[in-house]
Specification:
- There is one protein chain.
- The chain is of the alpha+beta class and about 140 residues long.
- It contains 4 helices and 7 strands; from the N terminus they run αββββαββααβ.
- The chain has a 7-stranded antiparallel sheet.
- A hairpin with a 3-residue loop joins β3 and β4.
Length: about 140
């Protein structure tokens, strides 16, 4: 694995589909398809408090974000260290605001009904997962 370069950081900011790989308690891998936004240093992902990936990362913050490119051969596997945010417990709280910002960063347009969005985040016990990029490997993103 190598350090991230300016070119790899730029490529990662342009791709939102990824597979998040975490470690179960027995050390085996657990994977989940996710949408993500990368700011050059950190991936952001919306997760729920009750899912396996969230429990896994609360126990062991090591993760891999396997970012999918435009074709089968274009991908990047990024080793990361995870940090879990607070669960959204009140419509419009800071956790909800952070999740709305993530939604808007991934989507082509702002959410049409933020109040509805906030209510869903509370009902689903959503929180923001931040994954600090450490090293990268893969192919297709170098060009």
């Amino acid at each position: 694995m190598a350090s991230l370069t300016a070119a790899s950081r730029e490529w990662l900011t342009q791709h939102h589909q990824a597979v998040l790989i975490t470690l179960r308690a027995d050390g085996s891998a657990q994977s989940s398809n996710v949408l993500t936004a990368f700011d050059g240093d950190v991936f952001r992902v919306s997760v729920t408090a009750v899912r396996a990936k969230t429990r896994n990362l609360a126990r062991d913050p090591r993760a891999v974000v396997h970012v999918l490119g435009d074709n089968f051969w274009g991908y990047a596997s990024v080793a990361c260290s995870a940090q879990l945010g607070a669960v959204s417990t009140r419509a419009g709280d800071q956790a909800g605001q952070d999740l709305l910002q993530l939604f808007n960063d991934i989507s082509d347009a702002p959410h049409p009904n933020p109040q509805e969005f906030f209510g869903i985040q509370v009902a689903e016990q959503r929180l923001l997962l931040s994954l600090r990029a450490e090293t990268i490997s893969g192919s297709g993103w170098q060009s």
